[in-house]
UniProtKB/TrEMBL annotation, chains A, B:
InterPro entries: P-loop_NTPase (IPR027417), Polyphosphate_phosphotransfera (IPR016898), PPK2-rel_1 (IPR022300), PPK2-related (IPR022488)
Keyword Repeat: no
Record protein name field: Polyphosphate kinase 2 family protein
Ranges where the record places region Disordered: 1-60
Species of the source: Streptomyces johnsoniae
Entry keyword set: Kinase, Transferase
Feature: compositional bias, Polar residues: 1-10
Length: 299, 299
């Protein structure tokens, strides 16, 4: 099953997939590289950079058209009993580009077939339930592409860093997440879990850029600096979460995200490779097309 | 309040808005015209047609960028207590282009700020509630753009045409809809209710086109012909619904929809004029930007 049209190109899933088992060594993974993107070797560095950026933008647009066609097939198959659906999970530190990825990458899809949910700090009603409850209610239906801007992984990050729940509780959550994701994968959910990996210095630049533009102030909260001060704790919490929960059924991909164009290109490719492997098919009609045509023409 | 940047162009809202009160005379409203679209007067009909189409596509793309900027302002304002939100309601006969409008027009927006819902025949759980229940649960939150592909108006169309409920029930529903929409308008919902008006012959062409392409068969159901046979009844039911429920708080717009490019352009314009009048503003930050910048630079 699955088409294999990219024999000339390396699989970005293979390049970015976190190995299963063992903690993730995030510090060893660069945030400013562009794995799998064939930008060629130009002589002038600046020129190369500019050209690569333009090619990436054009490449992402071309990927977008292919993604849109595959999404339509997934959606069409879903109307005829195919239970499969896709779930893109986006995690990353503040300013890592989760919102930008939704806007640019998901912007290629037909919005009617997408189920997008941004998870913020849980509400009082949500906290009265198990942490997976609110996530469960936001899952894509058959044929849909779900997009989580933050997710259930927040519940093994923030509580751990800030000591909001006892250690046995967040330790238990890794197992609960793995069991829950396995159950959904068995039911037809294909996970594309993406960690947008940015560097400490890059985050500073992005926060400063937000401060420089009053129109971006609404995206900024002084709390962002409080969280930034806990950077090493968050990296440790991420390393543990990604390591414990990168399973065969639902692997994590680590996308170097200091460059926005590469981030968009890489996430587009991850989705494309995944959808091509799923290879959803248009259902055949359950009616007699010739007879129906005759009926219309005989009106 | 509201910017007025279109003094040179007629308001498409004014051109397409259905008058308040009295039944709608749908038969008198053409489905193949392009009100408000200044396509100029070329000598050759074919050439004019092609050019107009190209200009419209380019125009819709330009409108799209302006729509995206206004949507971001609406969303940003919503994060700071502005309760306003937009609700696009799409109604029309089969093949009138509701899905295409969502794909093309809503595709300009940041999907993260959209709440899209397609209403199909009510499920058993939905039928166990008042007909407005399922619609209520799908409303946009503050700052969002809601999009309904079909809506509560189905409940004054299908039951009336097929006699599923007694006349006093569907008669009562017009009043219930008006009261409900008024309540929401008072709470900050701006309605853009659009009837995509296609002709009987145009529907035949579109159904035949679907039959000609096996990849489109999943969009087709033999039931579509059964409903088409009730065309006059549906036109009557639409005329009553649009007439009874075109209020000052939530007017109906009738968009001639035989031409897809005009439909996309007109709906884009309706949304643009509406958002420009709402004129949402970026909130100012509630923090000291200078001090925050200093804190970041002193790390």
């Amino acid at each position: 099953m699955g088409t294999q049209p990219h024999t000339d190109q390396p699989s970005v899933r293979d390049l970015l997939r976190l190995p299963v088992g063992g903690p993730a060594d995030l510090a060893a993974l660069p945030t400013d590289t562009t794995p799998g993107f064939d930008g060629g070797k130009a002589e002038e560095k600046e020129r190369e950079k500019k050209e690569r950026k333009e090619r990436a933008a054009a490449g992402t647009a071309a990927l977008g058209r292919r993604l849109a066609r595959l999404q339509e097939r997934l959606y069409a198959a879903g109307t005829a009993g195919d239970r499969r659906r896709l779930l893109l999970v986006l995690q990353g530190m503040d300013t890592s580009g989760k919102g930008g990825t939704v806007k640019h990458v998901v912007g290629h899809f037909n919005p009617a077939g997408c189920r997008i949910r941004a998870f913020k700090a849980p509400t009082e009603a949500e906290r009265a339930h198990h942490f997976l409850w609110r996530v469960d209610r936001s899952l894509p239906r058959a044929g849909e592409v779900g997009i989580f801007d933050r997710s259930h992984y927040e519940d093994v990050l923030v509580p751990r860093v800030h000591g909001l729940v006892p250690e046995p509780v967040w330790q238990r959550r890794y197992r609960e997440i793995n069991a829950w994701e396995q159950m959904l994968a068995d039911d037809g959910v294909t996970f594309v879990k993406v960690f947008l990996h940015i560097g400490f210095d890059e985050q500073r630049e992005r926060l400063l850029a937000r401060l420089d533009r009053p129109r971006k102030h609404w995206k900024f909260s002084p709390d962002d600096l409080t969280e930034r001060a806990r950077w090493p704790d968050y990296q440790e919490a991420y390393a543990a979460a990604l390591g414990h929960c990168s399973s065969a059924a639902a692997p994590w991909y680590v996308v170097p995200a200091d460059r926005k164009w590469y981030r968009n290109w890489a996430v587009s490719r991850l989705l494309l490779e995944t959808l091509e492997q799923l290879d959803p098919q248009y259902p055949s009609g359950t009616f007699d097309a010739e007879r129906t045509r005759a009926r219309l023409l005989a009106e």
